[in-house]
Amino acid sequence: MTQAKIGIIGGSGLYKMEALKDVEEVQVDTPFGPPSDALIVGTLAGAKVAFLARHGRNHTLLPSELPFRANIYAMKQLGVEYLISASAVGSLKEEAKPLDMVVPDQFIDRTKNRVSTFFGEGIVAHIAFGDPICQQLANVVADAVASLNLDGVNLHRGGTYVCMEGPAFSTKAESHLYRSWGATVIGMTNLPEAKLAREAEIAYTTLALVTDYDCWHPDHDSVTVEMIIDNLQRNAVNAQKVIQETVRRITENPFVSEAHSALKYAILTPLDKVPTTTKENLSLLLKKYL
Ligand SMILES: CSC[C@H]1O[C@H](OP(=O)(O)O)[C@H](O)[C@@H]1O
Ligand SMILES: Nc1ncnc2[nH]cnc12
Description:
alpha/beta; globular; binds ligand LNRAV4D5; binds adenine
């Protein structure tokens, strides 16, 4: 199968990477079913990358319907070691304005209905998740943003991303609650992805693209899709520039992340006691420990 060391998951508004050259559409199947769409493998800034539209290229999947395990496993099958997630978010802080970019370093889980582990079925593992983002990769993304001086875009390094279930946006009471927790942005997708990427020993970071002020802000109407569509499109243009610059920087300076050995001390079950089917389904994750 075609290989790529860098993966990109595009969220709302980012369904395609325009600058990708020599594009190949790869239909990947995984032990967890098919991913959200075909993976698009191509060359970006001289490097092979794999792009996946998180909600499908026509945005047909709800956040709760996303095949998170298949998406991450498919990236692993292609050999991805660094994964950049571009995601639309609402802002929970005055200073993070629509069109700004946030590179968060923490998450709060408010999801209710997601499978966010590869383990179970006879194998138990507990990954460390105190630092859910690969800080080295986050720094590369943030430095890429800073170097580009994008018009009207401020960069916010660090911050907490609240991951809610959706698909309805938050109530005002919830939005104020998350603000009282000190959270920075809110979205519906990145936490399960970050957990699964860590279990798959892939370095993961989020490029959060602010589209709105959620519903807490007294001077802005509560968020609706109609009101953010324009920002989604403008963010998608900027995100592609950032991703291209990030890919260039990773290729120039590849690095080893702690995420790349996240399973080393995480698996509790002796591997010779793991049922064969489970071992087969997780072979890509387990093979270096067998
Ligand atoms: C377009 S508004 C809500 C929608 O946008 C975000 O998606 P993604 O994280 O894939 O960019 C948010 O999580 C919701 O799914
Ligand atoms: N306000 C918001 N809440 C949740 N997800 C979002 N994605 C973009 N804006 C959002």
